[in-house]
Specification:
heterodimer; A: mainly alpha; 10 helices; elongated; disordered C terminus; B: mainly alpha
């Protein structure tokens, strides 16, 4: 409840303008009750980011199945992250946007740990790659590439559209390691997964710009 | 947010915009001293209020003009007679050089300003989108056109941004020019694949 209020306020007004008093009021708790849990907004931020990373890691872990190919698990893992973000827009705004560019070093340190972990997971693509020459740190660059349209949708209040980014995210996660032909094939597989899971195929979704405001806690 | 009322001459307006950016980088948004910025710019409060509606109006205008100048400079180095990868290399080289030469500007563009509040962050999102037309020709160059992902332009810009942001945030903006080959690779790979991107990376490394 407290963290829900905190991340919603950060999405609405930014981290710098989110005060403990505002968090207490939004959460419906007294200031003293709030401070029993968190001393300041930085502690709130660390807790919120840890909660988000835990949720993402659980979603990714559940996507890996020994009876499924590694690439199919990768597609499922990316889909799980996008679906989590769409279902938790305020936490997603905090985790993808606010932490990176609005919060103090203590909160960013949690983000950096998560970023390096996800980047390292993507770097596993090297094991399947025929390409001998690639820059170091390509995993984090790939992560950044996928995050760019995610951040755009979150900043525009369109979190519900995030699952539709699956094909693009699968493409960028695989093209540096597996090449374009294979990445395009996997992108098509991801697109088919979306078409199966929604009532209206992704290709037919209108590009409306309906604004979605994160709900208050 | 409007860009100012056009009452201030260009030189003084530029000085005012630079002064507020300097304040932002040095003191953070809450620490911006308008009296200090006005003194540094040699602008009176009366002149300021005739041009801007307040601190935020001035700051947002400064960001828009600052980032516009950076983009214009990078674009000016792209010779239309060169191939698309060559133009990407030239533009990127100019961009990295600008950021390395002015690390405080790099910091303001990537963190200090976007971090102020969500409305400021939307300007950062818009800034990244302004780079998309420069890379869009990659679709035709790739020979794959619309087969490529619908977001391929933003994916490419996002990959480069991630590497640039990481160095600026770590206080290593000065090292960006040396990273041109690697950043060029991630910028090109969504369009032309890893083999061709690796060739361009090697060429960029050889040119130095």
């Amino acid at each position: 409840m407290i963290l829900d209020a905190f991340v919603c306020l950060c999405a609405e007004r930014g981290y710098a303008e989110t005060t403990m008093a505002a968090v207490a009021e939004r959460a419906g708790v007294g200031p003293a009750d709030l401070r029993r849990h968190f001393a300041d907004t930085e502690e709130c931020g660390v807790a919120a980011e840890n909660a988000s990373l835990s949720a993402v890691m659980v979603a990714v872990a559940r996507s890996y199945d020994p009876d499924r190919s590694e690439v199919d698990s990768l597609i499922a893992g990316i889909a799980a992250i996008l679906e989590w973000a769409a279902e938790n827009p305020a936490y997603a705004y905090f985790g993808f946007i606010a932490v990176r560019q609005m919060t103090p070093a203590g909160v960013r340190a949690v983000y950096e740990t998560g970023r390096r972990t996800l980047g390292a997971m993507l770097e596993r693509g090297r094991d399947y790659s025929h390409v001998p020459v690639r820059p170091t740190g390509i995993g984090c660059a790939v992560l950044g590439a996928a995050e760019a349209p995610i951040r755009r949708e979150l900043a525009s209040g369109r979190a519900e559209r995030l699952p539709l980014l699956l094909p693009d995210c699968v493409y960028i996660a695989t093209v540096p390691f597996l090449g374009q032909d294979e990445a395009l094939r996997l992108m098509a597989r991801a697109r088919a997964r979306i078409d199966r899971s929604v009532a209206v195929p992704a290709s037919a979704v209108a590009a409306d710009l309906r604004h979605t405001t994160p709900p208050p806690a | 947010m409007n860009q100012g009322r056009g009452t201030m001459d260009e030189g003084r307006r530029t000085a005012m915009l630079e002064a507020i950016v300097d304040e932002l980088v040095a003191e953070g948004y809450e620490g911006i001293s308008m009296s200090r910025a006005l003194a540094a710019a040699g602008v009176s409060e009366t002149e300021f209020m005739a041009e801007f509606t307040g601190k935020d109006n001035c700051l947002f205008a400064a960001y828009d003009e600052l980032t516009g100048a950076i983009i214009a400079k990078a674009a000016s180095e792209c010779d239309a007679s060169h191939s698309w990868p060559e133009r990407m290399r030239s533009g990127l080289q100019t961009l990295l050089g600008e950021l390395a030469s002015h690390p405080e500007v790099a910091q303001a563009v990537t963190r200090s300003f976007p971090g102020v509040r969500p409305q400021a962050y939307e300007r950062y999102v818009a800034l990244l989108s302004r780079f998309e037309p420069f890379v869009a020709e990659g679709r035709e160059y790739s020979g794959l056109g619309e087969e490529l992902p619908s977001e391929v332009e933003l994916l490419a810009v996002g990959a480069a941004e991630a590497m640039i942001f990481g160095e600026v945030d770590a206080g290593r903006a000065g090292e960006l020019p040396g990273m041109l080959p690697e950043i060029l690779f991630v910028l090109l790979v969504p369009f032309i694949g890893p083999d061709r991107a690796a060739e361009e990376m090697k060429t960029a490394a050889a040119i130095g």
